[in-house]
Design a protein that fits this description.
By secondary structure, the chain is an alpha/beta fold. Helices cover 32% and strands 27% of the residues. It is an enzyme of class 2 (transferase).
């Protein structure tokens, strides 16, 4: 079946979409990437809600925004990870998580069934509801780690950075700490809101690492906590930067250089073996160069999965697993008490007809490159797709 995957990450820089052809071959899921793209995130939806009315409006407006994107693509099912607006963690335990982007709007616009709200079932089972990327990574990298004869680490750098370590001993996954979140917060403040990110690491490249600020940042107790663990912009945000930099003065370039180094070091400290990177942070050349000096870094494109669309392809995979009654979490990664089917299904235009549930959990994922006839390629133009 063809699944449309949707997600907006914690950086809120775009609505990511991917279309994947998915099938089962015994205990292996076969994923063929068809196309992926980014669509602008509505600027007016970046403001955090401050009341129940705001929250209701945001849920509707995000749902409409996701629906508008999904309606541009052809598929059999839509799978939406939505937009995380709050992740509630106390004393190292996740007590709740909230993703917005009401799926009913997507179902209404596309006529397709929609799987959404994936994280909360894992949380209810004692997990962190994150990182769900571990589902794709664990299935995908098991064979790679075996062939390499050493562990492999899948890395996603969004607002928060998360990793999945795959080795003969099993799978461990967790959030390492800030990815782009602190860099974006600093850039927004330093530019008086004119820029929300340090594009291409422009500021960081001109600066030098401020030793005292870096020491203060690295002293955050989150880094010493045992896995599984998760964090978010509830912790790593502008107020956090104000507290940790109190009494220090430095050029903006040094501030960005230090935050970039923090992300690189805290990621590298948790990685083993070959590191396969994806996510928006991989577009920051200064961050990538810093990481490359610390770890054996490759991109997921080299293994057949487009790095720019990996999270949206993850969303498609999660929806496919739920549709077939399969568990879509990795308990050793999220901390859940066991494997669980994730998400809730909103019917589309027609009566809901689910396939016969698959009884045995899948154990592998194969990425298959799409075969195209010569002269028949996809062209992308502002989200409008035509076959030529």
């Amino acid at each position: 079946m063809k699944v449309i995957g949707l997600i907006s990450g914690t950086s809120m820089d775009a609505i990511d979409v991917a279309v994947a052809e998915l099938s089962l071959d015994g205990l292996t899921v076969v994923l063929t990437p068809v196309e992926h793209a980014e669509h602008p995130f509505p600027e007016e939806l970046r403001r955090p809600p401050t009341s129940a009315a705001d929250l209701c409006a945001l849920d509707t407006k995000l749902g409409r925004a996701f629906a508008e994107v999904a309606a541009r693509y052809q598929g059999d099912l839509v799978s939406s990870l939505g937009q995380t607006v709050h992740h509630w963690v106390e004393d190292g335990r996740c007590l709740g998580t909230l993703q917005l982007g009401q799926p009913a709007w997507i179902a209404e616009a596309t006529g397709l069934p929609v799987v959404a709200d994936f994280r909360v079932r894992d949380v209810a089972a004692g997990g962190h509801g994150a990182p769900l990327a571990s589902t794709l990574d664990a299935l995908w990298l098991a064979g790679f780690a075996e062939s390499e004869g050493r562990p492999a680490t899948a890395l996603n750098i969004g607002g928060i950075a998360n990793i999945t370590k795959v080795s003969p001993d099993g799978v461990v996954a967790y959030d390492t700490g800030p990815g782009n979140a602190l860099m974006d917060a600093a850039m927004t403040v330093l530019s008086s809101g004119l820029r929300t990110q340090d594009t291409d690491g422009e500021f960081a490249r001109r600066g030098e690492v401020h030793a005292e600020l870096l020491d203060r940042l690295l002293a955050d107790p989150y880094y010493a906590r045992p896995a599984p663990k998760s964090t978010g912009k509830e912790h790593f945000n502008r107020a956090y930067l104000d507290r940790v930099s109190e009494g220090l003065t430095m050029p903006a370039e040094d501030f960005l250089a230090t935050l970039t180094e923090l992300t690189a070091r805290t990621i590298a400290a948790e990685c083993e073996g070959t590191v396969i990177g994806s996510g928006g942070g991989m577009r920051n050349p200064v961050l990538v160069e810093s990481l490359g000096r610390l770890v054996d870094l490759r991109t997921s494109d080299e293994l057949g999965l487009p790095a720019a669309g990996k999270e949206a392809y993850l969303a498609a995979l999660l929806g496919f697993l739920t549709w077939h009654g399969l568990p879509a979490n990795v308990p050793s990664a999220t901390g859940a008490t066991g494997p669980r089917p994730l998400g809730s299904i909103t019917p589309g235009r027609y009566p809901l007809r689910l396939p016969e549930p698959v009884i045995t959990a899948v154990t592998g994922l194969t990425i298959r490159r799409q075969e195209r006839l010569p002269g028949h390629e996809w062209q992308e133009n502002g989200g409008d797709h035509a076959r030529t």
